[in-house]
Amino acid sequence: MASGFAIDPPIEPMLAKLATALPQGPFLYEPKWDGFRAIVFRSDSDVYIQSRELKPLDRYFPELHEALAANVPPGTIVDGEIVIPTVDGLDFDALQQRLHPAASRVAKLAKETPSAFVAFDLLAVDGRDVRESPQRERRVALERALSSIARPIFVTPVTRDVKTATDWLARFEGAGLDGVVAKPEDGTYQPGVRAMIKVKHARTADCVVAGFRWHVNGPGRLIGSLLLGLYDDRGRLQHVGVTSSFSMARRAELAGELEPLRERALDGHPWREWADFSAHAGGRVPGGQSRWSAGKDLSWEPVRAERVCEVKYDHMQGDRFRHAAVFLRWRPDKSPHECRYDQLEVTPAFELENVFGA
Fold first, then answer.
1. What is the CATH number of domain 15-200?
2. Which of 88, 138, 152, 174 is deepest in the core (most CB within 10 A)?
3. Which of 211, 212, 213 is CA-nearest to residue 297?
């Protein structure tokens, strides 16, 4: 094309549905990267980076914008993930910090924690829309189009062997990846459709319920989420995340179940100092605001830290759950002080460089 992009942005990215096991059959299996989904548009003269939410990302990753311009051929549109690789694996916390309104702060972080882009699908090449081509052909075209790339641009590994993919699922987590994606070899690129299959790590943990938030549609009647805690080595109860996937009927039941624990809840509560949110707005506390909470009401109600629940989680981000945990059941047989970090499975370290050499 003489100018412009092969396909005008924005384009909804193709999505994946969650499964508990890797499917057998004619699939391409790839590691699931833990970063910001991004579609990169390359014209003859410019690069445009689009987020999963169909918004521009270029201003937050100026160093990546330059690298993509140097590595992605004109007339190409590539789907992939923005990540921040470190010696300890992928750093999602550092990635979140890049979404800062101040350009000076972004520029500073771009030098201190430079980002990378991992390509895993092709939407256009040589100015041609290839979304209707089967996945196996798009993969070959992707490798050909990016055959001369250099850091910080990468192409994700791929395998057709389910045993190899199962091994990746076990080993790659130590490098910060959070699962494996299976793509039908004959599948076309379907924007906004859950046409892929993802398998993530699943583990359980016993957590203390130390508070809750009301549901937006039923304050005083419906529980929105339970606030979870684990005790550290010094005996302090740390806020590790929430569990919030309940039916409306269950939310009402939970409100009744927790009501007795609200009486004198702050007397000796381990999070008592966090009751005054205004004094702790900058910290990671149950009611703390951040630039990503977008003004949401994060106020919380304390309960006596006496009940234990078992939850399912995929993996940890530092000392907390990376995503909301799934409530499984109450554990009346467990003491709250049994809910410690040392119950969690420790993932062996795995060099990120070895992922690309797989």
1. 3.30.470.30
2. 138
3. 213
Long-range Cβ contacts of 329-338 (<8 Å, 24+ apart): 331/206, 332/308, 334/206, 334/308, 335/308, 336/208, 336/231, 336/305, 336/306, 336/307, 336/308, 337/231, 338/206, 338/308
* Domain-wise residue ranges, the chain: 15-200, 203-343
Query: Mean pLDDT per segment of 10 residues, for the chain of length 358 residues?
Result: 79 95 95 96 96 96 96 97 92 92 95 97 98 98 97 97 95 90 98 96 93 94 97 95 95 96 94 63 45 56 96 89 93 94 88 86
Domain 203-343: CATH superfamily, name plus number: Nucleic acid-binding proteins (2.40.50.140)
Residues facing residue 122 across a β-bridge: 78
Catalytic residue among 17, 32, 55, 200: 32
Is 312 an active-site residue? no
